[in-house]
Protein backbone atom coordinates (compact mmCIF):
# COMPACT_ATOMS: atom_id res chain seq x y z
CA UNK A 1 0.00 0.00 0.00
CA UNK A 2 2.84 2.38 0.82
CA UNK A 3 4.36 1.77 -2.61
CA UNK A 4 1.01 2.50 -4.31
CA UNK A 5 0.55 5.65 -2.22
CA UNK A 6 4.04 6.86 -3.13
CA UNK A 7 3.41 6.16 -6.80
CA UNK A 8 0.07 8.02 -6.76
CA UNK A 9 1.57 11.03 -4.97
CA UNK A 10 4.36 11.14 -7.52
CA UNK A 11 1.79 11.35 -10.32
CA UNK A 12 -0.47 13.84 -8.54
CA UNK A 13 2.35 16.26 -7.73
CA UNK A 14 4.17 15.84 -11.05
CA UNK A 15 4.98 19.05 -12.88
CA UNK A 16 4.82 21.36 -9.88
CA UNK A 17 7.02 24.44 -10.33
CA UNK A 18 8.26 25.54 -6.91
CA UNK A 19 8.23 29.21 -7.94
CA UNK A 20 4.50 29.14 -8.74
CA UNK A 21 2.04 30.56 -6.23
CA UNK A 22 -0.36 28.40 -4.26
CA UNK A 23 -3.40 28.64 -6.55
CA UNK A 24 -1.40 27.82 -9.69
CA UNK A 25 0.19 24.79 -8.03
CA UNK A 26 -3.20 23.61 -6.74
CA UNK A 27 -4.62 23.75 -10.28
CA UNK A 28 -1.75 21.60 -11.54
CA UNK A 29 -2.49 19.08 -8.79
CA UNK A 30 -6.20 19.23 -9.60
CA UNK A 31 -5.61 18.56 -13.30
CA UNK A 32 -3.35 15.60 -12.44
CA UNK A 33 -6.00 14.23 -10.08
CA UNK A 34 -8.74 14.56 -12.71
CA UNK A 35 -6.66 12.88 -15.40
CA UNK A 36 -5.80 10.04 -13.04
CA UNK A 37 -9.40 9.60 -11.84
CA UNK A 38 -10.76 9.57 -15.39
CA UNK A 39 -8.12 7.04 -16.42
CA UNK A 40 -8.92 4.75 -13.49
CA UNK A 41 -12.68 4.95 -14.06
CA UNK A 42 -12.56 4.80 -17.86
CA UNK A 43 -10.11 1.91 -18.21
CA UNK A 44 -12.49 -0.84 -17.05
CA UNK A 45 -15.03 0.33 -19.66
CA UNK A 46 -12.77 -1.11 -22.36
CA UNK A 47 -13.19 -4.62 -20.91
CA UNK A 48 -16.85 -3.90 -20.18
CA UNK A 49 -17.65 -3.16 -23.83
CA UNK A 50 -15.67 -6.16 -25.05
CA UNK A 51 -17.66 -8.31 -22.61
CA UNK A 52 -21.02 -6.98 -23.88
CA UNK A 53 -20.04 -7.54 -27.52
CA UNK A 54 -18.89 -4.04 -28.56
CA UNK A 55 -15.09 -4.40 -29.05
CA UNK A 56 -14.95 -1.30 -31.26
CA UNK A 57 -16.00 0.81 -28.27
CA UNK A 58 -13.39 -0.94 -26.16
CA UNK A 59 -10.73 0.08 -28.68
CA UNK A 60 -12.12 3.64 -28.71
CA UNK A 61 -11.68 3.84 -24.95
CA UNK A 62 -8.16 2.38 -25.07
CA UNK A 63 -7.13 5.16 -27.46
CA UNK A 64 -8.58 7.69 -25.01
CA UNK A 65 -6.64 6.03 -22.18
CA UNK A 66 -3.39 6.49 -24.11
CA UNK A 67 -4.28 10.16 -24.66
CA UNK A 68 -4.95 10.64 -20.93
CA UNK A 69 -1.63 9.02 -20.11
CA UNK A 70 0.07 11.42 -22.52
CA UNK A 71 -1.70 14.32 -20.76
CA UNK A 72 -0.15 13.24 -17.46
CA UNK A 73 3.24 13.01 -19.16
CA UNK A 74 2.88 16.54 -20.56
CA UNK A 75 1.98 17.84 -17.10
CA UNK A 76 5.06 16.14 -15.64
CA UNK A 77 7.14 17.93 -18.29
CA UNK A 78 5.54 21.25 -17.24
CA UNK A 79 3.60 21.55 -20.52
CA UNK A 80 0.52 22.35 -18.48
CA UNK A 81 -1.48 24.32 -21.04
CA UNK A 82 -1.03 21.69 -23.77
CA UNK A 83 -1.93 18.93 -21.29
CA UNK A 84 -5.16 20.70 -20.27
CA UNK A 85 -6.19 21.39 -23.87
CA UNK A 86 -5.55 17.77 -24.87
CA UNK A 87 -7.44 16.56 -21.79
CA UNK A 88 -10.51 18.63 -22.71
CA UNK A 89 -10.42 17.59 -26.37
CA UNK A 90 -9.97 13.90 -25.47
CA UNK A 91 -12.74 13.98 -22.86
CA UNK A 92 -15.17 15.80 -25.15
CA UNK A 93 -14.46 13.38 -27.98
CA UNK A 94 -14.84 10.36 -25.71
CA UNK A 95 -18.05 11.49 -23.99
CA UNK A 96 -19.58 12.90 -27.17
CA UNK A 97 -18.67 9.81 -29.18
CA UNK A 98 -20.08 7.38 -26.62
CA UNK A 99 -23.24 9.49 -26.29
CA UNK A 100 -23.83 9.43 -30.04
CA UNK A 101 -23.05 5.73 -30.42
CA UNK A 102 -24.97 4.46 -27.39
CA UNK A 103 -27.85 6.92 -27.48
CA UNK A 104 -29.55 8.88 -24.68
CA UNK A 105 -30.58 5.80 -22.67
CA UNK A 106 -26.95 5.10 -21.72
CA UNK A 107 -26.84 8.35 -19.73
CA UNK A 108 -23.38 9.40 -20.96
CA UNK A 109 -24.27 12.86 -22.32
CA UNK A 110 -24.79 14.68 -18.94
CA UNK A 111 -21.03 14.37 -18.45
CA UNK A 112 -20.63 17.06 -21.13
CA UNK A 113 -21.99 19.62 -18.65
CA UNK A 114 -19.37 18.56 -16.13
CA UNK A 115 -16.66 19.03 -18.78
CA UNK A 116 -17.89 22.62 -19.17
CA UNK A 117 -17.31 23.18 -15.43
CA UNK A 118 -13.91 21.47 -15.56
CA UNK A 119 -12.68 23.87 -18.25
CA UNK A 120 -13.47 26.86 -16.03
CA UNK A 121 -11.73 25.22 -13.08
CA UNK A 122 -8.41 24.01 -14.46
CA UNK A 123 -7.42 26.86 -16.79
CA UNK A 124 -5.62 29.93 -15.47
CA UNK A 125 -7.05 33.42 -15.93
CA UNK A 126 -4.22 34.23 -18.33
CA UNK A 127 -5.47 31.37 -20.56
CA UNK A 128 -9.01 32.73 -20.70
CA UNK A 129 -9.24 32.22 -24.49
CA UNK A 130 -8.44 28.50 -24.17
CA UNK A 131 -10.79 28.29 -21.21
CA UNK A 132 -13.71 29.52 -23.30
CA UNK A 133 -12.76 27.53 -26.40
CA UNK A 134 -12.46 24.23 -24.55
CA UNK A 135 -15.56 24.96 -22.46
CA UNK A 136 -17.58 25.59 -25.61
CA UNK A 137 -16.65 22.21 -27.13
CA UNK A 138 -18.80 19.99 -24.86
CA UNK A 139 -21.71 22.44 -25.07
CA UNK A 140 -21.59 22.44 -28.88
CA UNK A 141 -21.47 18.63 -28.90
CA UNK A 142 -24.42 18.46 -26.50
CA UNK A 143 -26.43 20.86 -28.67
CA UNK A 144 -25.67 18.75 -31.74
CA UNK A 145 -26.78 15.57 -29.98
CA UNK A 146 -30.05 17.12 -28.85
CA UNK A 147 -30.84 18.75 -32.20
CA UNK A 148 -29.98 15.61 -34.17
CA UNK A 149 -31.80 13.39 -31.65
CA UNK A 150 -28.59 11.43 -31.15
CA UNK A 151 -28.45 10.30 -34.77
CA UNK A 152 -25.03 8.92 -35.79
CA UNK A 153 -23.65 6.81 -38.62
CA UNK A 154 -22.59 4.11 -36.17
CA UNK A 155 -24.71 2.97 -33.22
CA UNK A 156 -24.63 0.20 -30.64
CA UNK A 157 -27.79 -0.98 -28.92
CA UNK A 158 -27.38 -2.24 -25.36
CA UNK A 159 -29.99 -3.90 -23.17
CA UNK A 160 -31.77 -1.89 -20.49
CA UNK A 161 -29.90 -3.77 -17.76
CA UNK A 162 -26.50 -2.96 -19.28
CA UNK A 163 -27.53 0.68 -19.83
CA UNK A 164 -28.51 0.91 -16.16
CA UNK A 165 -25.15 -0.52 -15.07
CA UNK A 166 -23.29 1.83 -17.41
CA UNK A 167 -25.23 4.83 -16.09
CA UNK A 168 -24.36 3.84 -12.51
CA UNK A 169 -20.64 3.60 -13.31
CA UNK A 170 -20.74 6.97 -15.06
CA UNK A 171 -22.44 8.56 -12.06
CA UNK A 172 -19.62 7.27 -9.83
CA UNK A 173 -17.02 8.86 -12.11
CA UNK A 174 -18.97 12.13 -12.26
CA UNK A 175 -19.29 12.18 -8.47
CA UNK A 176 -15.52 11.69 -8.07
CA UNK A 177 -14.75 14.56 -10.45
CA UNK A 178 -17.32 16.88 -8.85
CA UNK A 179 -15.86 16.00 -5.44
CA UNK A 180 -12.38 17.01 -6.63
CA UNK A 181 -13.69 20.33 -7.96
CA UNK A 182 -15.58 21.15 -4.76
CA UNK A 183 -12.63 20.19 -2.57
CA UNK A 184 -10.33 22.37 -4.71
CA UNK A 185 -12.67 25.37 -4.51
CA UNK A 186 -13.14 24.96 -0.76
CA UNK A 187 -9.40 24.73 -0.05
CA UNK A 188 -8.58 27.67 -2.32
CA UNK A 189 -11.28 29.91 -0.83
CA UNK A 190 -10.34 29.07 2.76
CA UNK A 191 -6.65 29.57 2.14
CA UNK A 192 -7.03 32.83 0.22
CA UNK A 193 -9.36 34.21 2.90
CA UNK A 194 -6.85 33.45 5.65
CA UNK A 195 -3.94 34.75 3.57
CA UNK A 196 -5.87 37.97 2.85
CA UNK A 197 -6.50 38.44 6.57
CA UNK A 198 -2.81 37.93 7.29
CA UNK A 199 -1.91 40.42 4.57
CA UNK A 200 -4.19 43.03 6.15
CA UNK A 201 -2.61 42.37 9.54
CA UNK A 202 0.99 42.38 8.28
CA UNK A 203 1.16 44.35 4.97
CA UNK A 204 4.93 44.52 5.31
CA UNK A 205 5.16 40.84 4.36
CA UNK A 206 5.21 39.64 0.75
CA UNK A 207 2.43 37.48 -0.70
CA UNK A 208 4.47 34.29 -0.32
CA UNK A 209 5.53 35.22 3.22
CA UNK A 210 1.87 35.71 4.16
CA UNK A 211 1.12 32.27 2.67
CA UNK A 212 3.84 30.77 4.87
CA UNK A 213 2.41 32.54 7.92
CA UNK A 214 -1.10 31.32 7.05
CA UNK A 215 0.01 27.68 7.02
CA UNK A 216 2.25 28.21 10.05
CA UNK A 217 -0.76 29.25 12.15
CA UNK A 218 -2.27 25.82 11.46
CA UNK A 219 0.54 24.27 13.52
CA UNK A 220 2.51 22.93 10.54
CA UNK A 221 6.26 22.32 10.69
CA UNK A 222 8.62 23.44 7.92
CA UNK A 223 8.33 20.16 6.01
CA UNK A 224 4.52 20.28 6.07
CA UNK A 225 4.51 23.95 5.06
CA UNK A 226 6.73 23.15 2.09
CA UNK A 227 4.49 20.27 1.02
CA UNK A 228 1.31 22.34 1.42
CA UNK A 229 2.63 25.33 -0.55
CA UNK A 230 4.53 23.18 -3.10
CA UNK A 231 7.88 24.78 -2.34
CA UNK A 232 11.26 23.53 -1.12
CA UNK A 233 11.84 23.20 2.62
CA UNK A 234 14.91 25.42 2.39
CA UNK A 235 12.71 28.08 0.78
CA UNK A 236 10.38 27.92 3.79
CA UNK A 237 13.35 28.50 6.09
CA UNK A 238 14.44 31.51 4.03
CA UNK A 239 10.93 32.97 4.14
CA UNK A 240 10.74 32.44 7.91
CA UNK A 241 14.07 34.19 8.41
CA UNK A 242 12.79 37.16 6.41
CA UNK A 243 9.53 37.15 8.41
CA UNK A 244 11.46 37.11 11.69
CA UNK A 245 13.44 40.18 10.61
CA UNK A 246 10.42 42.12 9.35
CA UNK A 247 8.27 41.40 12.40
CA UNK A 248 11.24 41.80 14.78
CA UNK A 249 11.00 38.40 16.45
CA UNK A 250 13.70 35.84 17.10
CA UNK A 251 11.92 32.53 17.56
CA UNK A 252 8.96 30.61 16.16
CA UNK A 253 7.19 30.97 19.52
CA UNK A 254 7.53 34.76 19.48
CA UNK A 255 6.25 34.80 15.90
CA UNK A 256 3.17 32.74 16.78
CA UNK A 257 2.42 34.97 19.77
CA UNK A 258 2.62 38.04 17.58
CA UNK A 259 0.49 36.53 14.80
CA UNK A 260 -2.22 35.20 17.11
CA UNK A 261 -2.14 38.16 19.47
CA UNK A 262 -2.00 35.68 22.34
CA UNK A 263 0.94 36.34 24.73
CA UNK A 264 0.32 32.97 26.40
CA UNK A 265 0.44 30.98 23.17
CA UNK A 266 2.31 27.68 23.48
CA UNK A 267 3.64 25.48 20.67
CA UNK A 268 2.51 21.94 21.36
Give the count of helical stretches: 11
Look at the structure and give the mean pLDDT: 86
Order of helices and strands: HHHHHHHHHHH
- The Cα radius of gyration reads 23 Å
Q: Please bin the fraction of helical residues.
A: over 70%
* Proportion of residues in extended strands: under 5%
Q: Give the helix/strand class.
A: mainly alpha
- Principal-axes shape call: elongated
End-to-end Cα distance, whole Å, is 31 Å
Which residues sit in consecutive blocks of at least 5 with pLDDT less than 50? 262-268
List how many beta strands DSSP finds. 0
Q: Give the biggest beta sheet.
A: none
Overview of the molecule:
With 268 residues, this protein is mainly α. 75% of the residues lie in helices and 0% in strands. It contains eleven helices and no strands. It has helices at 2-12, 22-51, 55-76, 80-102, 111-122, 128-147, 160-201, 207-216, 222-229, 233-247, 252-260. The protein is elongated.
Question: What brief labels describe this structure?
Answer:
single chain, elongated, 268 residues
In a nutshell, what does this entry contain?
The protein has 268 residues and is mainly α. Helix content is 75%, strand content 0%.
